Amino acid sequence: MKLLNVEIASAGYENEKPIIHNIQFDLQDGELIGLIGPNGAGKSTTIKTILGLMEHQKGAVEFKEGVKYSYIPERPIFYDELTLWEHLDFTAAVEGLPELHYKKKAEEFLKEYNLSEHAHKFPGTFSKGMQQKAMLILAMIANPDVYIIDEPFIGLDPNAMKLFLESIDRERQRGAGILMSTHVLDTAEKVCSRFLIVHEGQLKASGTLSDIRRQCGLPAGSLYECFHQIAEGNRNEK
């Protein structure tokens, strides 16, 4: 079932100065799509366009009717004056979550992510890894249909990364679709259903790893090798 359909003709921060062009894909339930590209390729602009944050854009971004999404930014964002538990209370109030159900779920997440003893502290005092885990809990508590995640592995130690991957796999099993921007290509190759390789603001290859290999002419290539084939090909064309 299609949860999200993206047809971005162009988008940018200034009128008539687009950063990205012709980004087209859809997200199905239970899918994890990896948005791959170097710094400055247009990944963040793509995500911001999907979220409706770009003033200058042409094209269409359509979520399925009734779909609820959660966004996890690369740099965690919190209210300075709220503790982690107060952030959870605020999220629950905005989403209209039943109190008893949400509190039980919140306690389970906090225990799972080893944040129970930090629940009544300010997230601004947390380490980067702890902040990433807190952001994930705040996203999951809303029980969204779609996750949009920007560079989730930055700041996570191996144990936290394993826990994160287990969590998003669990969310996929219940039918959530996930769009994840990442530089960690070896991990993306193992966990993603499909890939979008963006380079210099354009979608250069898309599909499963087999599709990407075929488009790059590397029948046995890794995602890393295919990505660099695309990057080198674009440099040679100039």
TrEMBL record:
<dbReference type="InterPro" id="IPR017871">
    <property type="entry name" value="ABC_transporter-like_CS"/>
</dbReference>
<dbReference type="InterPro" id="IPR003593">
    <property type="entry name" value="AAA+_ATPase"/>
</dbReference>
<feature type="domain" description="ABC transporter">
    <location>
        <begin position="1"/>
        <end position="225"/>
    </location>
</feature>
<dbReference type="Pfam" id="PF00005">
    <property type="entry name" value="ABC_tran"/>
</dbReference>
<dbReference type="InterPro" id="IPR051782">
    <property type="entry name" value="ABC_Transporter_VariousFunc"/>
</dbReference>
<keyword id="KW-0813">Transport</keyword>
<dbReference type="InterPro" id="IPR027417">
    <property type="entry name" value="P-loop_NTPase"/>
</dbReference>
<dbReference type="InterPro" id="IPR003439">
    <property type="entry name" value="ABC_transporter-like_ATP-bd"/>
</dbReference>
<dbReference type="GO" id="GO:0016887">
    <property type="term" value="F:ATP hydrolysis activity"/>
</dbReference>
<protein>
    <submittedName>
        <fullName>ABC transporter ATP-binding protein</fullName>
    </submittedName>
</protein>
<keyword id="KW-0067">ATP-binding</keyword>
<keyword id="KW-0547">Nucleotide-binding</keyword>
<dbReference type="GO" id="GO:0005524">
    <property type="term" value="F:ATP binding"/>
</dbReference>
